[in-house]
């Protein structure tokens, strides 16, 4: 598996440090607000699991599963495969994503959830690729700003593989072809 990786972009130790930091920051910002963390599956699963262990306030968790159609003729359409179980009216939502790329997915989700009248919607992302942004959406909490490269590991996949790598790596170009 690791032979497919060109280089390590972010080590496991570095991830641990930054995730702990935003966990503390969110705990300060949402003290007494009982937020709901909304994980966007599948990419969020390792990040969210680690992040939650650094959140020290009362909160709950829920998950959504989405898929986006991205081909060459991208319509920006996002399909909801699993919706929330909890009622979010009047609640503070924190969307947890693996990576903010074009922003199409999170922009869609924000609008989709807004009509349920939550008290607020914030975004926590492990990585942000600002160079590729198409939609007007910004992360409130971001661990790493990265260049425009396709990365895998720590929950992120290429064709469903490499999610189990403990670090963030850049794939070798020949893997794509
Ligand atoms: P967006 O709608 O373009 O912001 O896409 C966000 C989703 O695309 C993420 O949740 C990932 O699932 C996927 N994605 C974007 N960039 C990468 C990457 O470099 N590696 C793996 N998945 C990515
Ligand atoms: Mg994802």
List the helices and strands and how they pair.
Elements: E1 5-10, H1 12-29, E2 36-41, H2 45-52, E3 60-68, E4 78-82, E5 92-100, H3 104-114, E6 120-128, E7 141-145, E8 151-152, E9 168-171
Parallel strand pairs: 2-3, 2-5, 5-6, 6-7
Antiparallel strand pairs: 1-9, 3-4, 8-9
The structure holds inosinic acid and magnesium ion.
Magnesium ion binds near residues 40, 43 and 98.
Task: Give short descriptive properties of this protein.
single chain, 177 residues, alpha/beta, Rossmann fold, 6-stranded mixed sheet, 9 strands, binds inosinic acid, binds magnesium ion
Could you please describe the fold and organization of this structure?
With 177 residues, the chain is an alpha/beta fold. The chain has helices at residues 12-29, 45-52, 104-114, and strands at residues 5-10, 36-41, 60-68, 78-82, 92-100, 120-128, 141-145, 151-152, 168-171. It has a single domain (12-146), classed as Rossmann fold (3-Layer(aba) Sandwich), CATH 3.40.50.2020. The strands form two sheets. A six-stranded mixed sheet has the order 4-3-2-5-6-7, sandwiched between helices. The protein has a three-stranded antiparallel sheet with strand order 1-9-8, with helices on one face. Strand 5, helix 3 (104-114) and strand 6 form a beta-alpha-beta unit. The chain is globular, with a radius of gyration of 16 Å. The two termini are 17 Å apart. The relative contact order is 0.22. It binds inosinic acid and magnesium ion. The site of magnesium ion (MG) has 3 residues, from loops.
